[in-house]
Design goal:
- This protein has 274 residues and is α/β, with parallel strands linked by helices.
- It has a single domain, classed as Rossmann fold.
- It has a seven-stranded mixed sheet.
- α1 runs parallel beside α5.
Length: 274
């Protein structure tokens, strides 16, 4: 990017292209259909947890994009009220065309949410906070999510972390493959810094404590096996583009349960302490 372009302009420009390319498609912001499918499975698994269903009356999605995920959830949970917030005017213009009786949309910034304190039961994000291109801004976003959540409310985050990403590139390098760079519009969380910051604000909840015993979609590493097969084994066998997606080889291995820590995208359940 050229000098003088702000982080906010980088994000608006990137998602303007996404809006023009994908419109209202499920692949908007994520062209890997298996990642997209598994993310949705993870989000629905979270909302299916009994403890979440009990409290999820007012739900906020931050970074709702074109509204695809919110629409799926709103239709599945008609007694809950959903609101989608996004920074991109172009994606919101698509989302607002969706006919969702129990859903609404608005433009906003996670660093300064236009919601009252303790006014939301559940917040979820799907690759949203990684679009804040400084750790300081990411901390502001996390603090704002904490502020608007009710005590005991849940934040379900599907975001990217450096530990899984570093392991992925280590595996590639060991096999003679080059490292995959972080996209220009993303900043991945450092796990240690993240945990230290959220410790006084949230409890990081083990899904098993919420009755999730066998559902692997809620494991933090739910995408690890897919990333290993798609970004390590596939390019090793084909000598092809590491970003080549949705091939039959990769689809064949998509049934594998998650193993290891090779995915940057991870799922974490946070519950507001106070």
């Amino acid at each position: 990017m050229s000098q003088g372009v702000s982080n906010d302009e980088i994000i608006q420009s990137h998602y303007k292209i996404q809006a023009e390319k994908h419109k209202d498609s499920s692949t908007s912001t994520m062209e890997d259909i298996i990642i997209r499918q598994k993310e949705l499975e993870s989000i629905f698994s979270f909302f299916n947890l009994r403890e979440v269903r009990v409290v999820a009356s007012k739900v906020l999605e931050i970074g709702c994009g074109n509204g695809y995920t919110l629409q799926q959830l709103a239709e599945a949970y008609p007694h809950a009220s959903f609101h989608g917030l996004d920074f991109s005017h172009d994606l919101l213009a698509i989302a607002e065309k969706r006919n969702i009786s129990n859903g609404s949309f608005s433009q906003g910034d996670v660093r300064k949410l236009a919601f009252d304190d303790a006014s939301v039961d559940v917040v979820y994000t799907e690759r949203c906070l990684i679009n804040l291109l400084s750790w300081e801004d990411q901390q502001k976003g996390l603090a704002e999510i904490h502020r608007v959540l009710k005590k005991g409310g849940f934040y379900f985050m599907v975001e990217s972390f450096t530990d899984g990403f570093d392991n992925l590139n280590k595996a590639r390098n060991e096999l003679g493959l080059g490292s995959i760079p972080v996209a220009h519009h993303n900043l991945y969380f450092n796990k240690e810094s993240f945990k230290e910051f959220v410790k006084p604000l949230f409890s990081i909840v083990n899904p098993s404590s919420l009755g999730n015993i066998e559902n692997t979609a809620l494991q933090s590493n739910f995408l690890s096996s897919h990333y290993f097969s798609a970004r390590v084994l596939h390019p090793l066998l084909t000598k092809g583009d590491p970003n080549l997606k949705n091939t039959e080889l990769v689809k064949f291995f998509s049934f594998l349960p998650p193993s290891g820590n090779y995915a940057p995208i991870q799922a974490h359940i946070l519950q507001k302490k106070h």
